[in-house]
Amino acid sequence: MFPTPEVLVLKRVAAVLGCLLAVSIATSACSIRTTSGSDDGSTGGGSLPASSIAAAKSRGTLVVGTSPGYLPFDMKDTKGDFVGYDMDLARAMAKSMGVKVEFKQYDFAALIPALKQGSVDVAIAGFSITGERALEISYSEPYYAAGQSMLVPASDGTTKSWQDVDVAGKRIGVSQGTTGAMLAHNLFKHATVADYENLPATTLALSQQKVDAIVYDQPGLQISAKQNPGKVRILPDRLSTENLGIVLKHNDIASVQWVNSFLDSYLGSGDEKLSRDTWFNSVAWFDQMQQSK
Amino acid sequence: MPHFEIVIDTELIRQTWKLFAAGLWVTLQVSFFALLIAVPLGVLLGLGRVSRNRVVRGVCMAYVEFVRGIPLIVLLLWIYFGVGNLLPLGGEKPAAIYTLGLFSAAFVAEIVRSGVQAVPRGQTEAARSSGMTYLQAMRYVVLPQALRTTLPPLAGQFIILIKDSSLVSIISVNDLTLVAKNLVASTAKSMEIYTALAVLYFVLTFVLARLVRLLEKRYAQGGHA
User: Alpha-carbon distance A239 to A159, whole Å?
Assistant: First the structure.
């Protein structure tokens, strides 16, 4: 049998498309080459990117990318305003720059792409600092020390550690794109890890018994536990410790330095203590929040 | 003047291809089993829409209009978190298959209805006047002709189904799209991973479209009744 014209076309197209798998388009020379290992495309010409902070200052507006749904850091209240510990941080940042602040809402997984393409100046959304992400974007110094914890239904009185639920047939709920999700995928060898859209969807899955436990940042779980008194409990042992950082364009050194200096002055200040009290030590704001994202 | 450089990161491909393959397998599974629901249900609904019985016609029309008026993402959330809380659906993958199947059936129904209606009325009349019952006329005269015109759009519907299945990650089905979303979250290589994702979907649908065309030709050659 000779191959039909369709088959030949198919083969040719498949060959071309195969070569296109995992390409990165960078702004330097015009060539095709292969590489093994991480290739830093964005600084191919050797020049550093323009400072986002300087750009925001001359524009008069700081554009902050965030992802409401991460309690109590990034939320939207019933009036549609962006509120939470991170949002106070962003407003204080804009205030010290003498510019207005504009919030843009993204899915958590879409934030880094949005930052990389310049749609936002900074991303403040409870980002945990990881070495792998830091190859593509740059972090400020840590502004909050969080970590992963586990939430189980109160009816489950026997589970003492994550190992107790790492058995075949058990399901662990996580939120898509979070460090909790990555940790759970690595940690659990026998249980199934299910990636839900965000924390509200994951807690919904827990309340509907679609999962047996949740792995998520400890501050967020504490809020969930306060919102569902008597229904859930947090395991005392953390699964990990993580630092939260502000995300900036890769190698935007000028902006990283400015944000670090700002954090040195902001953390521990009266404004920051007030923000901490409001969001972490009180539950008065519960009723004014939008329940889902 | 910006120049573009195409870099093929073999290390990234080596690290991720297994995950991509697993996601692709889930996407194919979900789409295929959804099709197994969509085609029989869609054919019944489509025939119901041209039925002589007013009640059957009304019920089928209501189903089609109802489902076509709801975004797929809403239907997924409703069936998984809403209906799934009352009835045991057996987890997120079956829930996704049922939802996609029920959703797609409405579109299959419209394809079948237009296929049947495209057969000239004179055909039915001739069959009936030669002594066939209504069902016989449908079975031996109308449906064989309708099948020919409905096959290409039905295959197209399967390709649409594969693309629609990219939404099932909303209810935690670990399909191709969710694999890519998770990889972007862990590596932050959004350009590379999402390009690979787009290319994979394109290759999948393109290959299927070509296979469908081969099938169509075969049918056209051997199909003179």
Answer: 14
B29 to chain A nearest CA, in Å?
Answer: 18
Closest C-alpha to B100, from B75, B83, B81: B75
Q: What is the average pLDDT across A158-163?
A: 91
Backbone angles phi, psi at B6, to 5 degrees: -100, 115
Q: Show the DSSP H helices in A52-167 as ranges.
A: 52-59, 85-97, 108-116, 162-165
Q: B8 vs A210: CB contact, 8 Å cut-off?
A: no
Structural contact between residues A115 and A239, judged by C-beta atoms closer than 8 angstroms: no
Q: pTM value?
A: 0.71
Residue B161: which of B34, B29, B23 has the closest Cα?
A: B34
The residue type of A208 is Q
Q: What is the least distance, in Å, from the CA of B109 to any CA of chain A?
A: 30
Report ipTM (2 d.p.). 0.71
The alpha carbon dihedral of B139, B141, B147, B149 has a sign of negative
CB A116 within 8 A of CB A42: yes
Interface of A with B in 1-60 (CB under 8 A): 4, 6, 9-10, 13-14, 17, 19-39, 41, 44
Contacts of B220 (CB under 8 A, 6+ apart): none
What's the Cα-to-Cα distance from A195 to each of A198, B88, B171, B175, rounded to whole Å?
9, 20, 8, 11
- Contact residues, B window 1-20, toward A, CB-based 8 Å cutoff: 2-14, 16
Contacts of B162 (CB under 8 A, 6+ apart): B27, B28, B31, B201, B204, B205, B208
The Cβ of residue B21 has, within 10 Å, a number of other Cβ atoms equal to: 12
* Mean per-residue pLDDT over chain B, rounded: 88
Q: Which of B1, B5, B78 to mutate to test the interface with A (most CBs of A within 10 A)?
A: B5
